[in-house]
């Protein structure tokens, strides 16, 4: 493999990982597929790229392709890649749980808000926060005639119990 090809592979691999972490799963799949096409699939790097590709397939709603690739990785020459593929396959083949709608929180689509509208709303919200600072509660001075200042003997009882315990341990030679 030439150094130029290796550089292209690493660039596509890093771009695929970065797109995945930003939530751009389709672009991540494209970058990882390009890297996978150029790399030796039986190498350690090839296995890592394919593992990332499986997770990108799952995130891009292409589960069947991810499962098929996971099954191929079960015969990979590197033990770590085989272990990861088995774990991923176990997760991908797990049954989907049914979720009731009342368990889910609906997140509104903010893509419909225009750029100018969102800036004006943010500006108004920021100005209202700045204009109304929270008042701090004033602490009142404590009247010492109302406070119980008598000794409650707890410290003395605890100290005597500790001394008796240590004395007993020394006496019996533990």
What kind of assembly state do the chains in view correspond to? single chain
Query: How many whole angstroms does the radius of gyration measure?
Result: 32 Å
Portion in beta strands: under 5%
| Secondary structural class | mainly alpha
Calculate the mean pLDDT score and round it: 84
Principal-axes geometry comes out as elongated
CATH topology (fold) name of one domain:
Serine Threonine Protein Phosphatase 5, Tetratricopeptide repeat
CATH architecture of one domain: Alpha Horseshoe
- CATH superfamily of one domain, called what? Tetratricopeptide repeat domain
Total beta strand runs: 0
| Low-confidence blocks of residues | 125-129
Q: Determine the N-to-C terminus distance.
A: 72 Å
Protein name: Tetratricopeptide repeat protein
Keywords: Membrane, Transmembrane, Transmembrane helix
List the helices and strands and how they pair.
Blueprint: H1 3-21, H2 25-38, H3 44-59, H4 63-73, H5 79-92, H6 115-131, H7 154-172
Helix pairs in contact: 1-2, 1-3, 2-3, 3-4, 3-5, 4-5
Region (Disordered): 115-142
Keywords: Membrane, Transmembrane, Transmembrane helix
Organism: Aerosakkonema funiforme FACHB-1375
Report what the structure shows:
- This protein is mostly helical and 174 residues long.
- The protein has a domain at 3-92: Serine Threonine Protein Phosphatase 5, Tetratricopeptide repeat, CATH 1.25.40.10.
- It has 7 helices and no strands.
- The protein has helices spanning 3-21, 25-38, 44-59, 63-73, 79-92, 115-131, 154-172.
- Helix 1 (3-21) packs antiparallel against helix 2 (25-38).
């Amino acid at each position: 493999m030439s150094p130029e090809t290796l550089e292209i592979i690493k660039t596509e691999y890093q771009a695929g990982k970065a797109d995945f972490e930003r939530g751009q799963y389709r672009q991540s799949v494209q970058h990882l597929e390009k890297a996978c096409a150029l790399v030796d699939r039986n190498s350690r790097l090839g296995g890592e790229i394919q593992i990332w590709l499986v997770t990108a397939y799952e995130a891009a709603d292409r589960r069947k392709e991810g499962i098929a690739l996971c099954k191929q990785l079960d015969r990979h020459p590197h033990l770590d890649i085989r272990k990861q593929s088995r774990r991923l396959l176990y997760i991908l083949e797990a049954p989907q749980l049914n979720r009731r709608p009342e368990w889910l929180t609906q997140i509104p689509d903010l893509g419909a808000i225009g750029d100018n509208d969102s800036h004006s709303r943010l500006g108004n919200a920021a100005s209202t926060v700045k204009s109304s600072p929270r008042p701090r509660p004033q602490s009142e001075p404590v009247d010492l005639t109302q406070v119980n200042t008598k000794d409650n003997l707890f410290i003395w009882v605890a100290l005597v119990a500790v001394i008796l315990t240590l004395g007993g341990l020394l006496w019996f030679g533990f």
